[in-house]
Amino acid sequence: MNRSVDIFGELDQTTRAEIEQSLAYQSYSSGQILFAPHDHGEQIFLLRVGRVRVYKLSAEGRILTLMLLEPLAIFGEMALVGPGRYDTFAETMSECEIGTIARTRLQQIIEHHPQVTITLMELMGRRLRAMERKLADIAFKSVPQRLASVLLNLTVLPSPQAETQPVVVRYTHQQLAEMIGSYRETVTKALGDMREAGMIRVEDDTIILTDLTQLQELTR
Fold first, then answer.
1. Contact, 70 vs 47, CB < 8 A?
2. DSSP character for 155?
3. Dihedral sign computed on CA atoms, order 82, 28, 106, 102
């Protein structure tokens, strides 16, 4: 999961209020495509409610999910560089509330508030490193290793004092396969092996991580 970063977090309250007025919010249902490769990048997106995935699509129709975004993630930022076109797909995975800000307006904000530029550069650098790690994992790690990593990344671990076990909202096997660059059938088998080994338990719409130590060791 791509942890949220508020690129306007360093600004004073008055400036933040002015920027908020520049954002046009809209509600989206699950499964809506927000942009596609080569679309003109006229606006940048801010996720306020819901979950969005950013992905690539091969010529054969296979999907590789690059990022899962949660509030208050900004996305579509690649439209700020180069020819100003998006280079991925962005799709809602649940009901969402998403704000848009014109590319030209964000460029004005960046010019007047250098701290926003720094935060945005840090965000883009973090995402680049995440893409490099994903590429390395696909090249060098097995499906069970990659699946263990994504399950750990998708969950919010409880505090040491908490009695409940960490859980993951249950994604479909196909969605999990698209996150790690694999096939649904392979992911189904890997999940079955993890369940038999006592690493996870599946209950209704959740995957419960029952042995964090085994899962963490599997990622190495």
1. yes
2. S
3. positive
Going by pLDDT thresholds of 50, 70 and 90, the confidence category of residue 3 is low
Structure tokens at 97: 């509330």
Classify the C-alpha dihedral 192-197-200-205 as positive or negative. positive
Give CA separation, 20 vs 16, 71, 104, 163, 217, in Å: 6, 15, 15, 39, 44
Amino acid at 48: R
Please name the residue that has the structure tokens 């003109």.
40
How many whole angstroms separate alpha carbon 211 and alpha carbon 161?
17
Among the ranges given (45-49, 52-56, 74-78), the one the predictor scored with the smallest mean pLDDT: 74-78
Comparing CA positions, the residue from 27, 33, 80 lying closest to residue 50 is 27
- Tell me the backbone φ, ψ of residue 158, rounded to 5 degrees: -75, 165
Query: Would the pTM count as exceeding 0.90?
Result: no
3-state secondary structure 137-148: HHHHCCHHHHHH
> b/e per residue, 136-159, with b = 16+ CB within 10 A?
ebeeebebbbbbbbbbbebbeeee
